[in-house]
Write a structure and sequence with these properties.
Order of helices and strands: HHHHHHHHHEHEEHEE
Number of helices: 11
Number of domains: 2
Largest sheet: 5 strands, mixed
Radius of gyration: 44 Å
Length: 446
C-alpha cells in the first residue's frame, strides 16, 4: 500500500498548518459554551460581592458575556478576528464596569494564544498581537494614571514615599500584565512551532516509508532479473548442447551406432547437469534466511575452476574450444567467479548457434592487478542481421554492470566474434573502458 506524502515540505517557507478539523471545531464550540456559562456565574458572584459601586446593567453584561466568550468557537478558523473582538470587548467591559474579572482574562489569553498558534502568516500574527498588547498596556497605563490622580481611588494604599505601597501595587499590576501577555505570546508561538515539527516528522516518516517500499520493489525486480538471468544461462546452454548432440546422434544413428550412443550419453549428461543446477537454484530461492555473498548470487558453485569442463563440453558439442589461464591464479569473490563463468557459457552458446560448423573458440582468463578479465573469441561467421535485444547480451551486461566492470561485444576485424569482460576485485575501484588493454570492438547484438 502506498504511503501518501504531503505535497509541501514543512521546511518550506510557504508551509501552512493543516486546516481545522470538524472535531477541533466541535471542541472549540463546547469550550466557548462552557466559558459563557462560567462567565454568567462569575457575573453573579462579582455582582453580589459588589466589585463596582455603579456596575453595568445586567442586559449589557449579558451582551458583553456573549462577545467575550462565544467568538472563541471560531478561534482556530479566524484567530485574528476573534482576538480583536475579544480584546475590544475586554476593554469595553472594563470601561463600563462590567462586574467580571475572572473568565474574561482566560478568554483574552486564549484569543492571543490562538493568533500565535494558528496564523500561518507569521508577520501578520506578530503585528496583530503587538497591536493588541500595546493597546492593552496603553489602556492599563491610562487606568493607572486615573487611579493615581484620583484622591478617592485606592484609599487603602499609602501614597507617601518614593516607593510607596501604591507604587508597589502599580508595579505588581504592570509585572502581572507583562507576564500574562508574554505567556500568551510565547506559548502561541511554541504551539505553532510544535505543529510544524510534528508535520516535519510525519513528512520524513512518510518519505522513509515510501523509500522503503521503493527499495523493496527494486529488490523484487532485481531478484526477478537475477532469476531470469540464471534460468536463461542454465537452460540456453544445456538445451543448446543437447540439441547439437541429439542432431549428431540422429545423423550417425545408422552408420555409426557407437558414435550415436556417445552423443546420446552427452545428451543425458547435459540433461542431468541442467536439472542439478536448476534444483540448486530452486533450493536457494526457497531459503528464508539471509545467505552469504556467493550463495546469494546463485544456487550453483560454478566458477573459474569449472571453465575446463565448460570448454570440454563445448568441444564435445562440435565447437573446438581451448582454455588458457594467464597470470597468477588467486582467490576471486564468489559473485565474480559465477558471473565470469556465466558470461563464458553464454558466449560459447552463441558461438555454437551462429558461428557455423567449422568455427573454433578460445577462452582466456587474465589475472590482472585488481581485476580479472575473461575473453571469449570465436572464428566463423557473424549474423548479417543480428537479433536486437538478445537476452544473452542483456544478461551479460547486467552482470558486469552490477560488479562495476566493463564489457566489450562485437565482431572482430579478422573475422568471428569477441566477448571481453573485465571485473574488478572487491577492493579495487571500477575499471573504466579507457583502462582496457585492447580497443573495444563494435558491439553487435546476436
Amino acid at each position: 500500500m502506498s504511503i501518501p506524502v504531503p505535497a509541501l515540505d514543512p521546511n518550506d517557507a510557504t508551509w501552512r498548518r493543516p486546516a481545522v478539523t470538524p472535531t477541533q471545531l466541535r471542541a472549540d464550540a463546547i469550550l466557548a459554551a462552557v466559558l459563557f456559562v462560567g462567565t454568567l456565574f462569575s457575573l453573579m458572584l462579582y455582582q453580589v460581592a459588589g466589585l463596582y459601586e455603579d456596575p453595568a446593567p445586567m442586559w449589557l453584561s449579558l451582551m458583553w458575556a456573549v462577545l467575550i466568550t462565544l467568538p472563541l468557537a471560531l478561534r482556530r478558523r479566524f484567530p485574528n478576528t476573534v482576538a480583536v473582538v475579544v480584546s475590544v470587548a475586554f476593554i469595553v467591559g472594563g470601561e463600563l464596569h462590567v462586574p467580571e474579572l475572572l473568565i474574561c482574562n482566560i478568554t483574552l489569553f486564549m484569543a492571543l494564544y490562538a493568533v500565535g498558534a494558528w496564523v500561518d502568516n507569521r508577520r501578520t500574527a506578530l503585528v496583530v498581537r503587538a497591536v493588541i498588547i500595546a493597546a492593552m498596556l496603553g489602556w492599563l497605563v491610562i487606568a493607572m494614571f486615573r487611579q493615581t490622580t484620583d484622591p478617592d481611588a485606592l484609599e487603602g494604599f499609602s501614597r507617601v514615599g518614593a516607593f510607596s505601597p501604591l507604587v508597589a501595587y502599580l508595579m505588581i499590576q504592570i509585572l502581572t500584565n507583562l507576564l500574562y501577555f508574554g505567556g500568551a505570546y510565547y506559548f502561541g508561538d511554541r504551539s505553532y512551532a510544535s505543529a510544524r515539527q510534528k508535520a516535519l516528522l510525519e513528512f520524513r516518516t512518510a518519505e522513509l516509508e515510501r523509500e522503503r517500499e521503493r527499495t523493496e520493489q527494486q529488490a523484487v525486480a532485481l531478484e526477478r532479473v537475477r532469476i531470469a538471468r540464471e534460468l536463461h544461462d542454465v537452460v540456453a546452454h544445456h538445451v543448446s548442447v543437447m540439441g547439437v548432440q541429439a542432431g549428431a546422434a540422429r545423423t550417425v544413428l545408422d552408420s555409426n551406432p557407437a558414435m550415436a550412443r556417445d552423443a546420446l550419453s552427452n545428451v543425458e549428461l547435459g540433461a542431468r547437469t541442467a536439472i542439478d543446477e536448476l534444483q540448486k537454484l530452486l533450493h536457494t530461492l526457497r531459503e528464508s534466511e539471509p545467505v552469504d555473498d556467493s550463495a546469494s548470487t546463485s544456487a550453483s558453485t560454478l566458477g573459474l575452476n569449472s571453465l575446463d569442463a565448460l570448454a570440454a563440453d563445448s568441444t564435445a558439442s562440435g565447437l573446438p574450444t581451448t582454455l588458457e589461464m594467464i597470470g597468477e591464479p588467486r582467490e576471486v569473490p564468489g559473485l565474480v567467479r559465477l558471473s565470469l563463468y556465466r558470461i563464458a557459457q553464454e558466449a560459447l552458446t552463441n558461438a555454437r548457434k551462429y558461428a557455423g560448423t567449422a568455427a573454433t573458440a578460445d577462452v582466456r582468463v587474465r589475472y590482472l592487478p585488481g581485476a580479472v578479465e575473461l575473453e571469449v573469441a570465436n572464428t566463423g561467421s557473424v549474423p548479417s542481421q543480428p537479433r536486437a535485444g538478445g537476452l544473452g547480451h542483456i544478461g551479460m551486461r547486467e552482470r558486469v554492470d552490477a560488479l562495476g566492470g566493463t564489457l566489450e561485444l562485437g565482431p572482430r576485424a579478422r573475422g568471428g566474434y569477441l566477448v571481453r569482460a573485465r571485473i574488478p576485485d572487491t577492493e579495487a575501484p571500477p575499471i573504466t573502458p579507457d583502462d582496457a588493454s585492447t580497443p573495444a570492438p563494435q558491439e553487435t547484438a546476436r
